[in-house]
Write a structure and sequence with these properties.
This protein has 157 residues and is mostly helical. A two-stranded parallel sheet has the order 1-2. The longest helix is centred in the middle third of the chain and has 49 residues.
Length: 157
Amino acid sequence: MIRQETLSREFRLRGCATLAMGVALAGFAGCNHPAPSDQQLQQRAAQTTQQVKQGAQQVATTAQAAAATATRKADAIAAGVRQGLQRDQSSPGVSSSGAVDINSASLAQLAALPGISEARAQRIVDNRPYTSPHDLVGKRIVSEAEYSRLSEKIVAQ
């Protein structure tokens, strides 16, 4: 009887163990997905690369816009600093109103005016004296459109 009980218990243990192994193997077999083919991997890589490329293009566009804005703001600040320096009323070449006197201003003061290069500043100096600021147009140093931008910043004394 003891022997039969032992055999029966052993049989049940082995049956349970076999059943547990079968369930585990079935579970592992169900979890194993077939490995993707080379073509599938290539397609996934191409899709991911395209998405990254589009994202990089969007970032580049945003960065260009930000750089242009920063450049424009830096230019405006620099122009403001130049204007502030030009308004030093004790400075020769600057009138009491803060406008640049085209008859006595230095090359640097003239070149600091918007749209006036060093070469154009030299032409202003070379063609002195002026009876009015509009003489810059008459002597073909600036165009009428350029003069309209400068007219409030210059005088001829």
